[in-house]
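Severity: low
Component: inverse-folding endpoint
Summary: output formatting inconsistent between runs
Steps to reproduce: submit the following structure tokens with default settings.
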């Protein structure tokens, strides 16, 4: 008689094999909680801490103060220089137009060559432009310096998003924290501008250079940590390894939806302060509060977006957000009184829940062109909303601000239609796995038996 056990009884050898996986899962859980990258993975080398991501997020906050500051300066340009709505929105356009064109170019450059020095330099350029915007009464000079600020912001985002991806290893939650830094910068911009300009007038604008100085120092510190060598080589080179296939048609559909979102956000950023004064009957404080709520709600929405995506999937969460933004914008336009602030908060959350998800989806749709994807999702499609801003201003001059803002209700619905055929991208790591990514994905197989969206 044969002594070999039947095939269905031959399982014991395989039951002793998995002990390595629970150990990896434990490592992965520690890694995910820290929000940092594990460049060494299973090699046993010490794992980097979350400090690089924290420094990058704080630097992001300092840079995005200058995106929010341009819109926050609009009421002061109207009051001190008697600009029309169209002229004031032209300043927003100056900050957005060159930025929207330049960001994909900077993204393409960072796809070919690492350019970490761009982070501190672009931070300073963004701050100098806004700081000089109130010095001269010349409209042309104001446009020029604000355009310089826009180029600085454009140069910052593609490279910073690439470095954040290195630090986060593509974690949606970690990228959400990086995006949160930018949202907090937006949120503090109206408070900083109001504190400086309301006290000293537009001529006090040079004081707004302070966040840029702080941000440049943070960027230098972050780069020293992120670029530290590891036993498996530079973390930056690992992150730049080509993997997967670029899906341009899907990426372009998503980019069209982001343009719709951008027009709504930039239009509200430019005029919500003035509109809140009209609808609530309040003064300058009422307008500043509305702009602050618009930006602060975005900070909360960005963090929520990463967590929701982990549970429900990125594409589904993005679709929900666009759908829910439609009634929220309608509430801003149509509902008077203090309830306006509630709808501003809901709109902000709806616009910002998908913000970091746009970035990671774009990077996964174009895994071989991460810098280009970051430049488009963080730059071109976002900044292009500023092009529509003068049209809103001209319509407000000809009719009323409420009438000019009404078309914004339809844009999230159009974005939702573009997103209907969106699919979850194949993860780049599947084509070129690394030990850190494998460890980070193990807990989903061990516990919930799901994959990270």
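Observed output (run 2 of 3):
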């Amino acid at each position: 008689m044969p002594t070999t056990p039947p095939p269905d009884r031959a399982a014991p050898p395989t039951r002793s094999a998995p002990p390595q996986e629970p150990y990896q899962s434990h490592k992965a859980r520690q890694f995910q909680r820290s929000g940092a990258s594990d460049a060494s993975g299973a090699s046993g080398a010490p794992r980097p801490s979350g400090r690089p991501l924290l420094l990058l997020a704080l630097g992001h906050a300092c840079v995005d103060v200058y995106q929010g500051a341009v819109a926050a300066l609009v009421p002061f340009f109207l009051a001190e220089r008697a600009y029309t709505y169209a002229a004031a929105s032209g300043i927003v356009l100056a900050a957005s137009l060159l930025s929207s064109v330049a960001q994909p170019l900077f993204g393409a450059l960072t796809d070919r060559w690492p350019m970490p020095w761009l982070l501190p330099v672009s931070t300073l350029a963004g701050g100098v432009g806004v700081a000089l915007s109130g010095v001269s009464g010349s409209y042309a000079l104001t446009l020029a310096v604000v355009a310089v600020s826009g180029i600085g912001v454009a140069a910052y985002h593609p490279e910073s998003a690439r470095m954040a991806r290195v630090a986060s290893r593509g974690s949606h939650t970690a990228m959400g924290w990086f995006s949160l830094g930018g949202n907090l910068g937006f949120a503090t911009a109206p408070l900083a501008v109001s504190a400086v300009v309301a006290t000293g007038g537009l001529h006090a604008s040079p004081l707004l250079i302070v966040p840029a100085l702080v941000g440049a120092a943070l960027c230098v510190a972050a780069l020293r940590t992120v670029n530290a060598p590891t036993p498996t080589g530079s973390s930056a080179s690992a992150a730049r390894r080509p993997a997967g296939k670029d899906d341009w048609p899907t990426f372009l559909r998503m980019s069209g939806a982001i343009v719709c979102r951008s027009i709504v956000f930039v239009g509200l950023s430019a005029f919500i302060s003035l509109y809140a004064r009209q609808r609530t009957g309040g003064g300058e404080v009422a307008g500043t509060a509305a702009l602050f709520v618009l930006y602060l709600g975005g900070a909360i929405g960005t963090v929520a977006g990463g967590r929701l995506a982990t549970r429900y999937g990125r594409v589904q969460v993005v679709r929900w957000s666009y759908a829910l933004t439609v009634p929220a914008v309608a509430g801003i336009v149509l509902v008077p009184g203090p309830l306006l602030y509630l709808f501003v908060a809901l709109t902000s959350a709806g616009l910002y829940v998908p913000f970091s998800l746009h970035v990671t989806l774009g990077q996964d749709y174009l895994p071989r062109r991460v810098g280009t994807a970051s430049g488009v999702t963080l730059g071109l499609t976002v900044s292009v909303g500023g092009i529509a801003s003068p049209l809103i201003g001209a319509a407000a001059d000809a009719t009323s601000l409420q009438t000019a803002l009404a078309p914004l209700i339809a844009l999230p619905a159009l974005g939702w239609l573009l997103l209907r055929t969106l699919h979850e991208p194949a993860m780049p790591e599947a084509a070129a796995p690394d030990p850190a990514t494998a460890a980070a994905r193990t807990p989903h197989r061990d516990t919930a038996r799901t994959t990270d969206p």
